[in-house]
Amino acid sequence: xxxxxxxxxxxxxxxxxxxxxxxxxxxxxxxxxxxxxxxxxxxxxxxxxxxxxxxxxxxxxxxxxxxxxxxxxxxxxxxxxxxxxxxxxxxxxxxxxxxxxxxxxxxxxxxxxxxxxxxxxxxxxxxxxxxxxxxxxxxxxxxxxxxxxxxxxxxxxxxxxxxxxxxxxxxxxxxxxxxxxxxxxxxxxxxxxxxxxxxxxxxxxxxxxxxxxxxxxxxxxxxxxxxxxxxxxxxxxxxxxxxxxxxxxxxxxxxxxxxxxxxxxxxxxxxxxxxxxxxxxxxxxxxxxxxxxxxxxxxxxxxxxxxxxxxxxxxxxxxxxxxxxxxxxxxxxxxxxxxxxxxxxxxxxxxxxxxxxxxxxxxxxxxxxxxxxxxxxxxxxxxxxxxxxxxxxxxxxxxxxxxxxxxxxxxxxxxxxxxxxxxxxxxxxxxxxxxxxxxxxxxxxxxxxxxxxxxxxxxxxxxxxxxxxxxxxxxxxxxxxxxxxxxxxxxxxxxxxxxxxxxxxxxxxxxxxxxx
Length: 516
Description:
The chain has 516 residues and is of the alpha/beta class. Helix content is 39%, strand content 20%. InterPro entries: CoA-bd, SUCC_ACL_C, Succinyl-CoA_synth-like.
């Protein structure tokens, strides 16, 4: 084996771009390991764990780009390096003819004075500083970076509030502003429904279901996952409601979040009640059931929230295909499973998609474990070991610390899929596949060999293993939603029509009672 190391001094690329390039580099022929990243301490730690860190890399600075290739020979590594350079070149040439690079936010703002939004994806140690600079330059901010302190988040959102600006994030992965999808997003038609989301894939799911039901999205404003915490107090969600209330294109507003702090929920609901436009509220996992009020409706799941929103725009329910649960299919799956195959193992890229499926299971089973379980008693002590019903969010810090997001790189999920397939108590494995801007170019295709191997492992043990898939996307997304679903069908995978149905099907497949 041979190793090739290249350090490009003072060469910055954002983490989203580098994750994508690193993933593509690892798929090149003859590559055992390729690592393309900025020379942060976190990334050096990853290289150390891989046994690839040397003195040269150790001395690299945060602003330096590291390219590390481990391959069969020096010649093979040189060919890989050339291919990686080509990935950077194609990226540089892929934008519009007006695209330009600037060394600082200030120079970009000075050279493009009409710009009004900055998307920031830098190491968390520098993210708050860059976001503050953008806000002080009167730019709205989408902060993709995580590992920003609560104190910094509060200060940034207070500054944005005082200036009437958006401060989306930190750890904000999804937004659609004036029709442009930022970071992770799907191709949906423009319309009159505005979304405010404290959850990335939850917001994507809402936008996709709204599109499927014939509606359209005016704006999708992400807040970051901690906005509805006690400390932050919902500053961004409250400001976003006001912005959508003032937006002439928006007729209906939908709010989506994981369970908020109680005091913040009361504040948000009061603001929603006072809004001049109808508001649909979807706080996933909330046990309290509230009746709809004039101008304020409640939904327990994303599909229900999307449906209520489009009905408020005048679309008739009778014209929609709502995809009710297929009970004959559920009975058929139950009949294939052995009595000991009683557990769900859910392997998700999207945190809110994982949450929604987990909350559906919790309505029926007490023994539901997860790395994102709100109940600490059922939070996994070791994320590498599943217990009973286990729901894993591979996008959580447990799995992404120093590694690409699973929407881009499926490596972690592939190994876990094969691990779960060996467990004789597993009846169904549920997985999501996220299409759209920022995601893997073929999310189903890259998992197919592992899916087939997982089924073969069970078959060799005399078991049937049901794999349930959900493709989050629209008919406008690339790759084709229909093609991705057909690939699942051809591989013997049952696919659900929505995030909501994914959770309901998974929990019913392993239930031996209460068939309808």
